[in-house]
Amino acid sequence: MDKLQQERYENSLQLVGLPESQSDTEDIKQVIKLSKEKLGIKLKSSDLQEVTRLGKKNRSKPRNLTLKFRDKSVRNNMYERQKKTMTNSDPSKNILYKR
Fold this sequence. Notes:
38% of the residues lie in helices and 18% in strands.
């Protein structure tokens, strides 16, 4: 992986299993709500630089959502909180992955 690509991923996380919305704005609202309810983080839309769904739309399951944060510390905080709340008994509840 070259340095530019590595820097691009440093501020990114991937969400898995978040229901698809009609727009990026709705996806951002879902992410903010999820981060507050599940992780106790007061995320703001201004904390996110880019939100992108990956792959082709599929009726049977939602596409992964890549979050690119403006600040690496916000990304790291969100990832660390997810690690603390992970449940080994039900991996399907672990929806946040480091990119």
